[in-house]
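Purpose: get a first structural picture of the assembly so the mutagenesis plan has something to point at.
Setup: two entries, given in the order below. No constraints added.
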Amino acid sequence: MPFSSITFIFLFLPITLIAFYVLPRKGWRNLVLVLTSLVFFAWSDPTHIHILFLSIIINYLWGRFIGRAQTQNATKSAKTQMWIGILLNLGLLGFYKYTGFFLDILNSGLPTSIDYTQKALPLGISFFTFSGISYLLDIYNEIHLPEKNLVRFSSYLIMFPKLVQGPITRFITVRDELLQPKFIPLGIMEGVRRFIGGLAKKVILADSLGMATNKVFAAEFNEMGASLAWFGLIAYTLQIYLDFSGYTDMAIGIGQMLGFKLPENFNFPYVSRSISDFWRRWHITLGAWFRTYLFIPLEFARKKAKVLRQQSNLMIVFLLTGLWHGASWNFVIWGAYYGFILAIEASGFGKKLKKAAPFFQYAYAIILIMIGWIFFRITDVSEWGSFFSALFGANGWTNLVTFRSLNILFYLPFLIPAILFSLPFLHQFGEKMKAKGGKALLALDIGYIALFLFTITFILSKGFTAFMYVEF
Amino acid sequence: MKKFSLYFLVIFFILLVSVPGYWLLRGKPAAEVSIIEGRVLGLPEKSYPTLKIALDYIQQGEPEKAISLVWDLYTGGSLQKKFDGAVTDQFPFRMPLIIFAKAVDRQIINLSYRFSDDDVIPADMTSEIYIMLKHDALIVPPGSFDQNIRNNIDHRLANYKDIASRYPDLNIYIYYLETLPYSQYHPLNAYFSNADQGQGFEYFQSNLPEKINLDFMPLDNVEGHLKNYYRTDHHWNVNGILGAYKGIYDLISNDKTDFPRKLSSTTLIPFPDIEFLGSYARKTLYPLKGDDFIGYEAEFPICVIKDQGVPGDYDFRDEYAAGNYPTTAYTDHYGTYFGSQKGLLEYICETQTDRNILIIGDSYTRPLVALIASHYHHTFFVDLRQNIDFTMSDFTQNHTIDDFLIVSDYEVVFMDTDQWMIQP
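Result (structure tokens, whole complex):
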């Protein structure tokens, strides 16, 4: 049930909100959240509901096991339980996501021919598995105690706003709201604005640009003019941000409507001044997860290594970040690409870059980010060369004819609002209006209602498409 | 909390609950046909015929079968998909909102093409239909011609060759309608590097077995398209139909000495109060003046028409002539007036001949059948899309056929290898 479907907006959401707030006892709200989250998941992915239950049971039990060992001062036992819990989570993720990929590698490297049909990926498995692992590690690191109440724990792990595409949320972030659910009208209002903004970003901009990019990336790169290739790349760069950040805005907005403050996942990543800056602004919760649970422990574990320690740790982290996105070589290379750039920036180039003119810093970052999206979007590695050739004019520069034959000329005007929504100015303008209050706020809210109605007409007229990150 | 913000919150939640509230308050809606979209709008309870079967199982004391049935429906996702579709279809003021969205689309398209000198631009953002601004006519983009298409045509040629060799006594005729997307006159041909431009038919024609008689209704320019085809629909108008009839008559009467004479006194019947907005207008909701809708009448012999052996009219020509027709915008007058497609339609006519003909074709062919039938004793019209078990051997075993005619555009005649292959 995508957030942008009529069923979600006009049935699931109001029913959930009413059920959540009319219950006499606040403690029941977690139960409502669990039940609605199960309905949400079962509607979209009925055949994998048992995986969700399995994940709840594994993380709840192993959280308790680690906690019990710690109260008994059995450090070794706590460590063992922590590793068992993590391996069970990774086993679940690995079985569904990576078995086919690793068997392919095995079959190509060894004289084996193991047949395997890749299983369908359970919805949101990469996200709720990482939430589960963070829960176990935080208990082990004594950041919080294990949650004894199963309903409360379940509502943390499978809370529907963040279940399918994050933000990857640590238990500590929402623990207080789970313990004491609150009715915060200002939060609800802000949540509604956030939800509408995200919906519009997704439906009007990301989906429209998606129609164009699907056509561009399905066309023959060998015959593609540079203008079309650049249009496709720019449109995809904007689409993936607006799609994913639109989803995140909706998730955070729904979270706020329910009294939760989910963590931010984006901070205008396309105004980054370096690639390390980009990774502090793009998919923030995934970056934070890898930094907290992998990079920092690696730095400690390998502190005796004198040569290229940080660089090699960055490489490891980003190879795994790539692999997290999907079990295919293009994602692995995409991760390695970022690992390599970050390693260079960590080797002194980053400091030099900071001294360069701001324009150069912005240009450097956005060009490298866009090149990264080529590896991300074109899954067939053998086609990268012809796309790069097209970008640099191997098939000529102007190609308005192909714009017409692909029937995408009318998507060009979408680039302007898409760029505006990707930069901080509109956001800053909105914040100023909110701060001013009075007529400015009234105008802003009328604008939001109009935007909501306009977005609904878009959904009715053109339908909706799945969110891009739902595949990961 | 600021007063304005409270209003905002209240309005948003009223909007959210007003939609399910509308569904609850209006009660159980009747099934509604969306003329514009040419389909019945989904209703949650109407979307689940399988659920009714499941209920029957429960009543018959077989709950395990019911559970298994519903489980399959649910795990396959079709239950949810149909529900989503029905919820969207039943959205209050859905059609005015869609019309508004299409109007916005057009403004964006106009803005995008403002700096070009194109007079053929997309009519909307989703349908791949274009508007010829000078002529107020909606058209589809050019068809393509490449190695895959050539392979398809080779398959169809082999199929014709096979039929011709298996049925040597049958006179086989093909009459092809050259349409704008498969002609060299499509105004967008220059933008499509693999535009057909008539190449597909040329290839088919040059490789067709000699035993098969072929003729076609050529398209000489865009004006020819506007003369013979509707501006708002993918079908042809009465000029095209009667022009093709003449061509087909010449083709099939050419080698026969005793063939009944051509229907000479075809009369055009205009329906001035009909503004025909056809399939292209429906899909795009492009605001343009509808086509004139004109029917025809002729001195037809007395014929009995049968569908699956049951005699009937199977068109609404008489009703239209008597003034009984809908005038609602977007009504499919072409399909209604000439009759809907059937798997097998038979015409048994009181004519001076005992010749029988089998015609294979689609909705282009439908208006021609009555005209051609007036020259035969028994005419069989088969639409292979609705008669998927059709085989020539079964058919010729049960019916005596002298002539075999295939009439329509590129898809039926030489391109499609899925639905229009003739099973020997």
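Residues 187-471 of chain A form one domain.
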